[in-house]
Design goal:
Oligomer: single chain
Structural class: mainly alpha
Radius of gyration: 18 Å
Number of helices: 11
Shape: globular
Distance between the termini: 30 Å
Length: 257
């Protein structure tokens, strides 16, 4: 029990540090929950719960940047809530066997998006700049994409932030601070509605999730003080290496038998 407490707190701590500096903390926290014996679907739900506090605090920190886009916020929040609860509902309809088989593919997708997120965003920003006068159909397609992104986040939390940033680049946002604020707002809305459904369905492991949450908060707070001294490219390199190793492990674990 003591080992589990220390292990999960440290996993949450390093996950919080990574989320604050480079993103990708779920590559640490989600496998940690499975390692201590929690079933994959409950581990995913619990990881969403543990990550949400960081989303909420980050959203508050960017409140001034968000205020500049207040006309867009009701629409973004509504679609994020609809997508989040839809993704969470889909997760609850998925059997443990099917979800376990999907884990390596979901992690692979999140890893690829994490590695190539900057290039994707650059390409999408260029496309958005060249098409500033978007048609009505284009606007509807953007809403559908946001809904799809939110469904993914409700179903599987890892990689959500980077995928949301890619959507924002496609939607024509260029201010990185505003984009980070909107990313955290979407992540918060998706996670909160998903957590509500997970609580109703009794899918959150509260003891382990709370330990992870405290670790995440501690790591995020610590990272705020040391992030200026850490080269981000080195941290990103560590996250990429860890995500590749963890993804390969799950492929071997799921398909070797």
């Amino acid at each position: 029990m003591l080992f589990e407490l220390i292990f999960l707190f440290l996993a949450g701590f390093f996950g919080g540090v990574l989320n604050s500096i480079a993103g990708g903390g779920s590559f640490i926290t989600f496998p940690a929950l499975i390692f201590v014996g929690i079933s994959p679907i409950m581990a995913n739900a619990t990881n969403t719960f543990a990550s949400c506090a960081g989303y909420l605090s980050g959203t508050y920190a960017f409140r001034k940047e968000l205020a500049e886009h207040k006309s867009d916020l009701p629409k973004i929040i509504l679609i994020s809530l609809l997508g989040g609860i839809s993704g969470a509902w889909l997760l609850l309809q998925t059997s443990e066997v099917v979800f376990r088989s999907a884990i390596p593919w979901l992690l692979l997708f999140a890893t690829v998006v994490f590695i190539f997120g900057a290039q994707i965003n650059k390409t999408l920003k260029k496309a958005a700049t060249n098409n500033q006068h978007a048609s009505t159909i284009g606007g509807i397609l953007l809403l559908i994409i946001l809904l799809g992104v939110s469904i993914y986040g409700g179903f599987f939390n890892a990689g959500l932030g980077i995928i949301v940033l890619s959507y924002l680049a496609l939607a024509g946002y260029t201010n990185i601070n505003a984009m980070n604020g909107l990313k955290l707002l979407v992540s918060s809305a998706v996670s909160l509605i998903a957590i509500a459904l997970f609580i109703y369905s009794d899918m959150i492991v509260w003891y382990q999730g709370t330990i992870l949450l405290f670790g995440t908060l501690a790591g995020g707070y610590m990272a705020a003080n040391v992030s200026r001294q850490l080269p981000q490219k080195h941290v990103r390199g560590f996250v990429i290496a860890a995500s590749i190793v963890i993804t390969l492990y799950f492929f071997v674990d799921v398909y070797s038998g």
